[in-house]
């Protein structure tokens, strides 16, 4: 897309006397010309004259720094340069989404650059950068960017890894003025944050709250894994969040020392990608970063060490350290790694060819492992992955989850599959199958590169800098892959497989809930025990093709094709009651989405059948259709791009798949065949049942797990359909019951098929006639599912108390109010979204900024569209038990004030502008409109209310929000829940 600022450098200076203008040639034509308010692009307020910007001096198109020393073809879309202070930059024009500019500043320093006394400082500085800086007063940065339309977290964020700290800003609807200001302000934040004693004291409780909320079984397991696999290396003890002791030791002086040591121009990379001339973007980098000077002498990067085998290890069988980690309630798991030293590579084409052969080798093994698990193996899943984590090792990692308590059998089973791959080459048929999968992925990457978001490109650049490799265009990757097809031979794959499992250091960790189950020595014995591959059988079944599949039924022509009345969407009707919505577009070449809504969702399920809901989420697709089992589904997908997500909603079931233009017809066949001729293999059901049985106890390990298990069940007044099945319920479930329940659910209720994106309309109508139109007429939905009663718990003066078995300083608190549901009140649901975000910002200010009690308190609104009720507005926070009363007091005070006074103008603007920009960006993609119109084939309200989408979100006056708050927050006292550690539960109930 051409930008109005895409012009020669010679006339850039002329912009100084022009008014600020959007950095894009034109807004993408609204795809909704029939809308009363067709989602216009947001209009920037009057701005001062645009600043003068000189032409860039240090851009080097012929010598891009990231490609030096490689033979990777240069991607000419990137313009790269180096400043005299050694800061490197890369900029690129990209118009996806229109008007957006994505800025990334990467500092080549993360937690591995800390000393023992500085653990957590890299992440702490990330926080302090956003608190106050050269140009921003205390707490001003986030509100400023919100007023420009950048949402906190989604558009304005930062991340700290062991090796890098990255600051990001996605600036929507940029003008030259706002872009110039943003680059200047962002540069000031990173170069000159206000690292004062007051700011350290203010931010430290927030960082400690973030650390506390991350604690729990998952974090302890991750820490133990890192400590084992990277023993005697800095990575073993360098979790970016740090320790309580070192964080509490943070002072103005030692934090400034870390910033001074590592925040230097020679350690910084700036990437800017967006809807503007690259010369302009380069000039802005040079304008605000050229005068940055590091203080003092540059520090040497620390040595990250290398994995080393203990003394005396037999190099012929180098199983070194083993560790058994006991976590009550957690699912068993086992990981072992073959570790080699990390080495800086020269990122050449030949190096990448080797990586592709490695990937092919792991793909063959992973396919065999999955087939073994499906075919009666002793493990739920297993996978092999090659990785180079944090520049600390070059490893082959194997993960597995035992099916039962017999972890030894599972380990032997997985080791046998790997040993077979190491001992003998794969067949050419196995390789060809994986080659087809890779080819479709790489070809799709080329096709989708035309609509790749600028934010993704900016992320790819800073990630390449982090791993010390170049970047390659999708076209280069595809050409490289297709040019080496003759190298994907059994001998080559076999050679690379052997290398993957060769190394001087092998470490293994077993996770178990039972402290009596094993010790380190037992794990070492199991890792070195002889294994046999005699019982293994490689899958020699012939591939299934679509040409071999039977028709769904007698093809039928549609009985009506008519405009829906919005966009250019057409409604297609068949005589069996199936309806379809079709919207062919051209702005996302090659990409299409097929969505099938059927049945009545949760409302069609009886409460005594609820155990089969979660089992259906996991196993329904895998049970296959007709004569096609789960392996057959994989074979059908070879060389194609399919999706098969399955969702269970309050009033409907949903199949959803992203596919390609040429695969839409086959995607339709898969979905239709599942409804018309479902298969009922018991193996996927039993596997899902075992997985749920093994994982259920893990929900009780921390407050978040308890909420995931019980919150929706409680919010629906203990309706069993919203509860996770426990061991007793799972014990009573069997394959026959699963088949009986889902046979009924798949056959009843209406069917709507939505196809949006790039496709041939005539071909898709014909494919619909051969698939969904050919199905028998549907059974009607049961009367009780049409307008079901939806209950909400009564307000409670004292919160309901649940308990978790985790850390004593972790708790969670919830307060919720009932709202409503149904498409008839869609405008109300949108206003509730805005009200919830205002509430959320206030709660964030109170609990995080003022009290430091919670890192990320949250308020959200849920309004089901397919049932008339069941909605809720809910506030939630994780915090220490002592702060629970403060949460409820703060939330009640906010609710009362909103009901009495409504939101203030500025806080409403901080919410509405990011929503306005989100709508402006999102409407250019077909999935946005699919999400708005899904269900509209038989529900006129969704079409009618689409016309007010823009005004509902962005033009609702403050008085309406006050009335909305009065209606919902002022009439129900709120239902309260607290999740406390076991020992604190009694105190909370007093």
TrEMBL record:
Pfam families: Peptidase_M16, Peptidase_M16_C
Residue span(s) of domain Peptidase M16 C-terminal: 251-436, 755-912
Single Gene Ontology BP annotation: proteolysis
Family listed: Belongs to the peptidase M16 family.
InterPro entries: Metalloenz_LuxS/M16, Pept_M16_N, Peptidase_M16, Peptidase_M16_C
Organism, scientific name: Croceibacterium mercuriale
Domain Peptidase M16 N-terminal: 100-213
Keyword field contains Phosphoprotein: no
Listed Pro residues bias regions: 38-51
Spans traversing the lipid bilayer: none
Keywords attached to this entry: Hydrolase, Metalloprotease, Protease, Signal, Zinc
Name of the molecule in the record: Peptidase M16
Region (Disordered): 30-53
Record has Protease as a keyword: yes
Gene Ontology MF terms in the entry: metal ion binding; metallopeptidase activity
Extent of the signal sequence: 1-25
């Amino acid at each position: 897309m051409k930008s109005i600022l895409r012009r020669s450098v010679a006339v850039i200076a002329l912009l100084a006397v022009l008014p600020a203008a959007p950095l894009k040639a034109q807004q993408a034509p609204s795809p909704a010309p029939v809308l009363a308010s067709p989602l216009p692009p947001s209009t920037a307020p009057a701005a001062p004259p645009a600043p003068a910007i000189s032409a860039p001096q240090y851009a080097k198109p012929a010598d891009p720094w990231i490609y030096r020393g490689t033979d990777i073809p240069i991607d000419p879309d990137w313009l790269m340069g180096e400043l005299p202070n050694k800061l490197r930059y890369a900029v690129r024009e990209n118009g996806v989404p229109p008007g957006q500019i994505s800025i990334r500043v990467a500092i080549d320093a993360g937690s591995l650059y800390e000393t023992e006394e500085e653990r957590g400082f890299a992440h702490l500085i990330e926080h302090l950068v956003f608190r106050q800086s050269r140009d921003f007063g205390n707490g001003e940065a986030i509100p400023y960017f919100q007023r420009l339309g950048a949402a906190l977290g989604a558009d304005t964020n930062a991340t700290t890894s062991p090796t890098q700290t990255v600051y990001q800003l996605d600036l929507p609807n940029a003008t030259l003025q706002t872009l110039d200001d943003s680059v200047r302000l962002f540069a000031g934040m990173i170069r000159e944050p206000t690292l004062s004693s007051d700011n350290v004291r203010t931010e430290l409780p927030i960082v400690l709250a973030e650390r506390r909320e991350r604690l729990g079984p998952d974090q302890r397991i991750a820490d133990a894994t890192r400590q084992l696999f990277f023993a005697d290396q800095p990575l073993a003890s360098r979790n970016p969040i740090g320790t309580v002791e070192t964080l509490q030791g943070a002072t103005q002086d030692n934090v400034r020392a870390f910033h001074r040591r590592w925040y230097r121009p020679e350690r910084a990379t700036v990437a800017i990608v967006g809807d503007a001339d690259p010369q302009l973007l380069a000039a802005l980098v040079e304008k605000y970063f050229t005068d940055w000077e590091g203080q003092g002498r540059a520090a040497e990067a620390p040595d990250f060490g290398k994995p080393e085998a203990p003394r005396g290890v037999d190099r012929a069988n180098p199983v070194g350290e083993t560790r058994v980690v006991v976590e009550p309630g957690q699912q068993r798991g086992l990981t072992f790694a073959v570790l080699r030293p990390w080495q800086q590579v020269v990122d050449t084409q030949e190096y990448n060819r080797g990586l592709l052969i490695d990937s092919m080798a792991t793909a063959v093994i992973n396919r065999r492992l999955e087939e073994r698990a499906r075919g009666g193996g002793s493990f739920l899943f297993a996978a092999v992955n090659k990785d180079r984590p944090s520049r600390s090792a070059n490893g082959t990692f194997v993960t597995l989850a035992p099916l039962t308590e017999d972890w030894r059998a599972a380990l032997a089973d997985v080791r046998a599959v790997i040993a077979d791959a190491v001992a003998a080459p794969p067949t050419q048929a196995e390789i060809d199958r994986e080659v087809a999968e890779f080819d479709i992925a790489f070809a799709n990457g080329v096709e989708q590169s035309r609509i790749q978001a600028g934010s993704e490109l900016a992320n790819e650049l800073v990630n390449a800098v982090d791993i010390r490799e170049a970047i390659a265009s999708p076209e280069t990757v595809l050409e490289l892959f297709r040019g080496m097809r003759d190298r994907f031979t059994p001998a080559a794959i076999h050679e690379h497989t052997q290398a993957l499992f060769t190394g001087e250091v092998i470490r293994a960790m077993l996770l178990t809930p039972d402290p009596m189950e094993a010790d380190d020595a037992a794990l070492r014995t199991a890792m070195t025990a002889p294994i046999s591959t005699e019982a293994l059988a490689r899958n020699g079944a012939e591939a299934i093709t679509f040409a071999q599949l039977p028709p769904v039924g007698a093809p039928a022509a549609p009985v009506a094709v008519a405009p829906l009345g919005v966009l250019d969407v057409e409604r297609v009707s068949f005589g069996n009651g199936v309806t379809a919505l079709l919207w062919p577009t051209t702005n996302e070449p090659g990409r299409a989405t097929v969505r099938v809504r059927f049945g009545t969702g949760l409302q069609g399920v009886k409460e005594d059948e609820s155990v089969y809901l979660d089992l259906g989420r996991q196993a329904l697709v895998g049970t296959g259709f007709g004569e096609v089992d789960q392996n057959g589904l994989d074979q059908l997908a070879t060389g194609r791009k399919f999706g098969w997500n399955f969702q269970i909603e309050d009033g409907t079931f949903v199949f959803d798949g992203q596919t390609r233009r040429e695969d839409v017809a086959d995607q339709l066949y898969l979905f239709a065949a599942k409804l018309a001729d479902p298969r009922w293999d018991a193996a996927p059901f039993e596997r899902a049942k075992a997985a749920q049985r093994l994982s259920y106890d893990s929900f009780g390990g921390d407050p978040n797990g308890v909420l995931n298990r019980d919150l929706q069940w409680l919010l629906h007044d203990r309706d069993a359909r919203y509860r996770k099945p426990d061991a007793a319920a799972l014990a009573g479930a069997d394959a026959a019951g699963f088949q009986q329940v889902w046979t009924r659910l798949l056959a009843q209720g209406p069917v709507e098929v939505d196809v949006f994106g790039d496709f041939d309309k005539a071909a898709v109508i014909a494919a619909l006639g051969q698939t969904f139109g050919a199905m028998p007429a549907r059974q009607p939905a049961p009367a009780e599912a049409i307008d079901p009663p939806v209950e909400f718990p009564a307000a409670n003066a004292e919160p309901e108390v649940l308990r978790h078995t985790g850390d004593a300083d972790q708790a969670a608190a919830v307060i919720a109010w009932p709202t409503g549901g149904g498409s008839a009140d869609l405008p109300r649901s949108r206003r509730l979204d805005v009200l919830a975000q205002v509430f959320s910002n206030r709660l964030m200010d109170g609990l995080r900024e003022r009290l430091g009690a919670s890192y990320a308190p949250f308020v959200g609104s849920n309004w089901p569209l397919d049932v008339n009720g069941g909605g809720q507005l809910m506030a939630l926070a994780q915090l220490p038990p002592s702060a629970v009363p403060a949460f409820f007091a703060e939330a009640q005070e906010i609710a009362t004030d909103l009901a009495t006074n409504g939101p203030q103008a500025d806080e409403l603007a901080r919410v509405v502008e990011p929503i306005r920009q989100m709508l402006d960006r999102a409407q250019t993609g077909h999935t946005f409109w699919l999400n708005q119109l899904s269900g509209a084939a038989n529900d006129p309200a969704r079409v009618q209310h689409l016309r007010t989408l823009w005004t509902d979100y962005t033009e609702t006056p403050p008085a309406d929000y006050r009335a909305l708050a009065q209606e919902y927050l002022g009439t129900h006292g709120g239902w309260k829940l607290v999740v406390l550690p076991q020992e604190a539960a009694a105190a909370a109930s007093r």
